[in-house]
Automatic annotation (TrEMBL):
Gene Ontology CC annotation, any one: Golgi apparatus
Transmembrane feature ranges: 16-38, 81-102, 109-127, 168-189, 215-239, 259-278, 287-305, 325-346
UniProtKB keywords: Membrane, Transmembrane, Transmembrane helix
Name used for this protein in its record: Uncharacterized protein
């Protein structure tokens, strides 16, 4: 399998080994962080009993300064989703690299470099998130202060933020892995650039069309990842609102309607639309591409509506506002770029690109005889 992906390239083998080690090490550490966070979340919820009892001797919870029970509960629960997304991101970058090796896609390799840099930033945010769940506030009798006092009691087997050492380790290792992969990617860029040049030829127009094709396929993969990331966060909030005991909780009918609508749109955006795009490219079908563009516009509208809800009703998304905003804005930017590239790809249909894509990947989609003689060129 490795020899098929990497071929005789030493740097390709290095990249696969490096990315695999990164995935295994970071996933293992992140799994430990997730487990410790889940224990911490459970203990915080248990602490609400004695904490609430102690606070009620002084005043009502609703009149206390600082974050309230709902915000603390929802923040801690939603953070578990972010740890899971970080684990999925590691597996995602490895899959992207394997795909880039198979197709010799230098653009996708550069995108993985940027994706790793984003994960470095998120690893830093992860450390801050852990500290921000419970922060001491002014005044002796506040809910966060009382819960922190419970964690700090002598003999407590689970101290607050027990995962911080692992979080710092993930941050340091991600810096090393991202830097190392950037060096390897530069070597691969030089190797693959020459390989594709020899196979697809020196025709500038054809190379430009192939470049648009590669970028479009790559952006589609990031579309799926970020759309799924948003869906995971949004669905977790819906479930929390349904199971919560606060005034903002959802009833069964509300949750059912939201879930049905969101799942239909998510399945469409993450499964149906990519299938339409792939079929449209491979068959050069303008009908499929037009359907993809129409569906993409619908997805953009849905993301804009959700972004507006986050801004207009922030209390509904307590603990997830910033990250929902980040994922939604990312979806919007990627969506606009995807639609523009889809239109460019559709314009390039019937110009002989598919036959030459087959040359690069090793499997012709259409026989060369189907390409008119004035669109052929030598690949020697």
């Amino acid at each position: 399998m490795i020899s098929r992906l990497a071929g005789d390239s030493t740097w390709s083998r290095y990249s696969l080994a490096w990315s695999s080690i990164q995935a295994v090490v970071i996933v293992a550490l992140e799994a430990v962080i997730l487990r410790l966070h889940l224990v911490e979340t459970a203990n915080i919820k248990l602490a609400f009993g004695p904490a609430e009892y102690a606070l009620k001797q002084v005043t009502q919870l609703s009149n206390l300064p600082g974050p309230k029970q709902e915000e603390i509960e929802q923040t801690t629960s939603v953070l578990s989703v972010y740890h899971i997304l970080f684990i999925i991101a590691q597996i995602f970058q490895l899959i992207l690299l394997c795909d880039a090796m198979f197709n010799k896609n230098t653009i996708q390799i550069m995108a993985i470099v940027a994706f790793n840099a984003a994960m470095v930033a998120y690893a830093g945010v992860q450390v801050k998130q852990g500290y921000d769940v419970l922060v001491r506030t002014e005044g002796a009798f506040t809910l966060p202060n009382t819960i922190l006092d419970i964690f700090e009691r002598p003999g407590n087997p689970t101290p607050y933020h027990a995962s911080k050492n692992y979080e710092f380790a993930v941050l340091a290792l991600m810096v090393i892995f991202a830097s190392g992969f950037a060096v390897i990617a530069y070597k691969l860029y030089k190797e693959f650039g020459w390989s594709i040049y020899k196979k697809i030829g020196a025709d500038l127009a054809m190379r430009d069309m192939y470049k648009v094709y590669q970028i479009f396929i790559m952006i589609l993969k990031f579309d799926i990842f970020f759309q799924l990331g948003f869906s995971a966060q949004f669905l977790s909030l819906v479930v929390l609102k349904y199971t919560g005991s606060t005034s903002n909780s959802l009833d069964r009918n509300e949750m059912k309607n939201i879930l049905i609508l969101h799942l239909i749109l998510s399945v469409g955006a993450c499964i149906i639309l990519p299938v339409l795009a792939w079929r449209g490219l491979k068959r050069e079908s303008k009908i499929c591409m037009a359907a993809f563009i129409a569906g993409g516009i619908g997805t953009l509208v849905y993301n804009i509506i959700k972004l507006n809800q986050v801004f207009e009703n922030p209390t509904r998304f307590i603990g997830a506002n910033k990250f929902l905003t980040f994922f939604l804005i990312s979806n919007l930017l990627l969506g606009v770029i995807t639609l523009y590239l889809a239109w460019l790809c559709m314009k390039n249909f019937n110009n002989g690109l598919n036959a030459h894509i087959g040359k690069v990947s090793g499997t012709n989609i259409y026989p060369m005889e189907s390409v008119s003689s004035n669109k052929r060129w030598s690949i020697e």
